[in-house]
Write a structure and sequence with these properties.
Elements: H1 19-25, E1 32-38, E2 43-50, E3 56-64, H2 69-79, E4 83-92, E5 97-105, H3 113-122, E6 126-133
Antiparallel strand pairs: 1-2, 3-5, 3-6, 4-5
């Protein structure tokens, strides 16, 4: 259900969400939210991606833009018991490469993040790998 509220910006860009809506959205201490910020439209979209207690890693990949690559990568995450919470892909125009950005939950992961990095780097279709743990 869509609600509209007028709120006032506090110090340093802080915005206070009315408590009833904060509870409904899962705005609790330690929760993770994705902010999509459009400075051209002066808009912000906020989406909860994980409740507290998760161990999250942001994944950025440059890959060959061809069928099956995303399936290989998601299969590798599954093999390591890493859960994909968010992903977005885009074609990098004119160079036959694509970009993948994902947030994965590694709370129940088998193995280490370094092992997963090495396996991603070993895939022929993967050209660059960045794994960044989120605090």
């Amino acid at each position: 259900m869509r609600h509209y509220e007028i709120v006032r910006v506090r110090e340093k860009g802080k915005v206070e969400i009315p408590p009833d809506y904060a509870y409904e959205l899962g705005l609790v201490e330690g929760a993770y939210f994705l902010l999509e910020i459009d400075t051209d439209l002066n808009e912000v979209h906020m989406e909860r991606i994980a409740l507290p207690g998760k161990k999250l890693v942001e994944v950025e990949l440059i890959v060959e833009d061809k069928p099956g690559v995303l399936a290989k990568i998601s299969g590798l995450f599954g093999k390591h018991r890493a859960n994909i919470l968010f992903s977005e892909t885009e074609e990098l125009e004119g160079i036959e490469l694509g970009g993948i950005v994902a947030v994965i939950d590694v709370s129940g992961m088998s193995g280490t993040i370094e092992e997963m990095r090495r396996e991603l780097e070993a895939l022929r279709e993967v050209k660059e790998v960045t794994l960044r743990p989120l605090e």
